[in-house]
Design a protein that fits this description.
This protein is mainly alpha-helical. Helices cover 60% and strands 0% of the residues. It folds into two domains: 77 residues; 109 residues, Hypothetical protein, domain 2 (Endonuclease III, domain 1).
Length: 242
């Protein structure tokens, strides 16, 4: 009988054997800075959102100053991002809401909060969905147990049959997280996202995935179909067959 957790564990082991040596936590932001970084990263290259984050830090010096600044000044700092005219007022709105609820701009209290409750609280803010809340918990110096799911991770999961494409990235987050073995630590959860994401970036491309060189090919019905089609086309156009 098919056991999804066993399958996910096998997928993880194979991908970790390929990408594991490349994986490490890429920064050590406090959770509020991670939340800001995540809000800036929507539909934006990592290098561009990182530049925008640095602009905010260098220009304003504190998140309180970002919150209280003229929105045009914040928008100017966010120029490297996509849609700075939308992200600037949204960022300030979130910072104000946090201040109203907590009395200060600091999310370090999340370290002592149940992960599910922490994520639901974060997702109560505009623009913060499951992927963003998981990123704050996992990527920040909280180093908590949560599974972010980006577009690359999602694509690999769909092609492996772990989730239906119609569900969408937002709802997929919790489903895929529940498929991960319960014994996975926070670091292993982070590693799992990383190997799935990297596989999507390096092999399981949106267009023309490199199925022939995929370590998951024997377990991927999508890959078998695609590679079979490629093989037939190559054979059909081979000089030997003409």
């Amino acid at each position: 009988m098919y056991d999804v957790k066993d399958f996910v564990l096998e997928v993880h082991k194979r991908l970790y054997a390929v990408y594991g040596s490349q994986i490490k936590y890429f920064h050590d932001y406090d959770p509020l800075s991670e939340l800001v970084s995540t809000l800036l990263s929507h539909r934006t290259k990592n290098s561009h959102s990182a530049e925008a984050l640095t602009n905010l830090q260098n220009t304003f010096g504190s998140w309180e100053n970002v919150r209280d600044a003229d929105v045009s000044e914040v928008q100017a700092a966010l120029k490297p991002c996509t849609w700075p005219e939308q992200k600037a007022p949204r960022l300030q709105q979130v910072l104000r809401l946090i201040t109203e609820q907590r009395g200060e701009l600091n999310l370090d209290f999340l370290a002592d909060t149940d992960v599910n409750k922490a994520r639901l609280w974060l997702e109560s803010f505009p623009g913060v969905g499951p992927k963003s809340s998981a990123a704050v918990i996992s990527f920040s110096n909280l180093r908590g147990r949560a599974l972010p799911v980006d577009s690359h991770h999602y694509r690999v999961a769909v092609r492996l049959g772990l989730i239906d494409v119609k569900i969408g990235e937002g709802k997929a987050n919790r489903i895929l997280e529940n498929q991960v073995p319960a014994e996975f630590t926070a670091k292993e959860m982070f590693d799992h996202h990383q190997v799935m994401m990297r596989h999507g970036q390096k092999v399981c491309f949106y267009f023309k995935p490199d199925c022939i060189n995929c370590v998951l090919l024997d377990s991927c019905s999508t890959g078998k179909t695609l590679s079979s089609t490629v093989g037939e086309n190559i054979s059909r156009h081979s000089p030997i067959n003409n």
